[in-house]
Design a protein that fits this description.
about 250 residues; mainly alpha; 2 domains; elongated
Length: about 250
Amino acid sequence: MGFLFRKRTEAYDEMTMMVVEAQLGDEIARERLLKEYTPFILRVASNFCNRYLVMGQDDEASIGLMAFNEAIDKYSADKGAKFLTFAEVVIRRRLTDYYRKESKFTNNVLPLSNFQDTENQDQERLLEIEEANKAFHIEEEAFNKKQEILQFTQMLGDFDISLSELVKLSPKHQDARERAYEVAKLIADNPLLLEFLQEKKTLPLKKIEEKVEVSRKTLERQRKYIIALVLVLTGNFEYLQSYIQGLEKEVKKG
């Protein structure tokens, strides 16, 4: 594994190597990047805001620094974009988020238009920005999915369920998955049943039996799978919820 890693990184330039080292936990490499590229961060942020910024005095400068640090974590050389181009896109994105949140758009600050370079710049630069934008979307989505899975795994742990166990317990037949989804939706939409589940960490089997035509034996067999579905339905899980939309459609068809 070490040989493969060395072989892969031989083609990386010094900056990319520092980024990789920072991603692997080298705080000295991270601090070096943040320190050496503070002028770059200020230039990008200042150009974006159309005014001179000072680190430690202007919020936009601090946001640029945090965005650069975020870019270190999310960057992947395999996506084709150069790191500084990628970092520039992340800085601009985060400044736009800031202005949207704070409602500080002015006639002199046009964050949305600043995602692209001016028409006077060459085509190669525009292509770099385009590639960096694509890389940003890919890496941000992957990062968000990873964070969502981590959060979901922690919530499953509260119910003594592991992610690997859940994969094995997933019903093989479509009709069984649909029945489990119906039960989960019933719990998610019923405050009393949901409260019971959250407090007792188990299914309110007796109350569920009164409301659905599913045997206790089936409910007990699918218990962990149903609980997992409830957690997805009631949690802030954008990506995981998209996975179970097919079940919802099938249930509605039935």
